[in-house]
Amino acid sequence: MAQGFLEAWKRACEIDGGIVSVPFGSFFISSADFKGPCNGQTLFRVDGTLIASDDSTLGNQDYWITFYKVDLLKLSGNGAFDGNGASSWSHCEGHKKCRNMPPSTLKINYVKNARIQGIKLINSKMFHVHIHESDNVVVKQVNILAPEDSPNTDGIHIGNSNGVRIMDSYIATGDDCVSMGEGSTNVNITGTWCGPGHGISIGSLGKYKEEKDVFGITVRNCTFNGTDNGLRIKTWAPSSSSTRVSDVTFSDIIINEVKNPIIIDQYYCPHGSCNSNGESTVEIKGVKFFDIKGSSTTETAVNIKCSKTKPCQDIEFSGLDLTLTNGQPTIASCSNTKGETFHGSDQVPSQCS
């Protein structure tokens, strides 16, 4: 079946305004790489359901569907990409590294000026969408669904990409709803629902050498429901690079029964394999948390654990209203910060302990 789609793509790619259309129905497809450059805008419309093999590795492929070096791509429709991931999840122990890393569903790779709208992605073997080395990518009204206990099923992962906008989407997975890795710049996330999952995260950063900076991140008017984390920045300790995270704003956020509503963790080590005495050299500077309201399932709703080597700088809080689910106030815990500011004594919490 993949060969038929590839031939249709080749024909569509040759003309400006070419269309590949997946009609109503279910279609099993092996891994496919839809390559450019194309001669103008190319539309890939999905109204049916594309279903991946239940082979946990897809023949040792890293990705099921890839769009590569395409300018003016439009991926839309009312259909779905079904990653058929349940057979792969059993190869991973909880959220620890899988024995054989399963493939992600959709990779947007070296793509410019793309719009992804209306589609559904379900039950990916690993990440649902990976946006890599791409510019000006809009993701709008997309639904991403996987069970709460499915490992490594991030909704959207962004890396080394600029100008990504995620709008009016619903993401419920077993890992981060949106994760932003190294080189993520000028990312705007608005009107998006997250839950269940691990929240919206910057990082993890510092694991590899020569990672690129992250800056210009805005998360606004989003809702978190029953997630492990809400707004998170995470870096490894010890770290292998001196990346900088700066110019980050989280605002107008609704939190419903979230375990860690606001967390900066510069001692991130999910598998327990790190040197417990190590420090992160990733710099975090200029992060704003404005108008974050709702309920926390733990007393410490704001948990800022920064590096002794590179303390966090210019962390601002304004308009916080975070209470426990029983209505009691929460607290903030901060370590190794320079210049954290709580604007207004009437917010909850109103200062760091």
Explain what you see.
The structure is a single chain. By secondary structure, this protein is mainly beta. Helix content is 5%, strand content 49%. It has a 22-stranded parallel sheet that branches. An eleven-stranded parallel sheet has the order 3-6-9-12-15-18-21-24-26-28-31. The mean pLDDT is 94.
Give a short overview:
By secondary structure, the protein is mostly beta strands. About 5% of the residues lie in helices and about 50% in strands.
Please name the defining characteristics of this protein.
eleven-stranded parallel sheet; 22-stranded parallel sheet; 5% helix; elongated; mainly beta; 353 residues
What is the percent of helical residues? under 10%
Low-confidence stretches: none
Ends apart, CA distance between termini: 60 Å
Q: Which secondary-structure class do the elements indicate? A: mainly beta
The number of E-state strands comes to 33
Q: Could you say which overall geometry the principal axes of the C-alpha atoms support? A: elongated
The average pLDDT score comes to: 94
Radius of gyration: 20 Å
* Biggest sheet character: 22 strands, parallel
Q: What is the count of helical runs?
A: 2
Beta-sheet strand percentage?
over 45%
Write the topology of this structure:
Blueprint: H1 2-13, E1 18-22, E2 26-28, E3 32-35, E4 42-46, E5 49-51, E6 63-68, E7 73-76, E8 80-82, H2 86-89, E9 104-109, E10 112-117, E11 120-122, E12 129-132, E13 135-140, E14 143-145, E15 156-159, E16 162-167, E17 170-172, E18 178-180, E19 185-190, E20 193-194, E21 200-205, E22 214-220, E23 223-225, E24 229-236, E25 244-258, E26 260-268, E27 283-296, E28 300-305, E29 312-318, E30 321-324, E31 331-335, E32 337-338, E33 341-343
Parallel strand pairs: 1-4, 2-5, 3-6, 4-7, 5-8, 6-9, 7-10, 8-11, 9-12, 10-13, 11-14, 12-15, 13-16, 14-17, 15-18, 16-19, 17-20, 18-21, 19-22, 20-23, 21-24, 22-25, 23-25, 24-26, 25-27, 26-28, 27-29, 27-30, 28-31, 29-32, 29-33
